[in-house]
Write a structure and sequence with these properties.
Length: 132
């Protein structure tokens, strides 16, 4: 995955300041990690939930003018993350792309940049599921 210099610097700043990765240790980091882990365990208790959230994200995205939105899931037996995983799920979407505020949103808790954008579908955490 290619990341521009400015984008890489932005991600490194979030890692350092927010998550104490490669910077000064923050004593609250472990408490936050445990709280988010517990929340995710409860929220995503059903195995299918995370897929529904990915689909909802694609539905909420912004797309360039004249582009038909697309979403593709690919499972590969390659461990592209080098974490020892038996497989990797790749998600492709032709949205406009992430801006710095979107990256910060993904790295935060309840900091969505998409609040209020739902027009239809409601696949995600608070909605009724359906197949697109």
């Amino acid at each position: 995955m290619y990341m521009s210099g400015a984008a890489r610097e932005h991600v490194e700043e979030i890692r350092r300041i927010k998550f104490s990765i490669g910077g000064e240790a923050n004593p609250l980091t472990e408490d936050l990690h445990q709280a988010v882990r517990d929340l995710c365990a409860e929220l995503y208790a059903k195995d299918i939930r995370f897929l529904m959230e990915l689909i909802q994200n694609a539905e909420d995205n912004e797309y360039p003018e004249g582009v038909d939105p697309s979403l593709e899931f690919v499972i590969t037996s390659n461990d592209i993350t080098n974490t020892g995983a038996p497989a990797t799920l790749l998600v492709f979407n032709n949205e406009k792309g992430f801006l710095p505020n979107n990256v910060e949103s993904v790295c935060g808790v309840r900091r969505s940049t998409k609040k209020g954008l739902r027009k239809h579908g409601y696949i995600g955490e608070k909605g009724t599921s359906y197949i697109l």
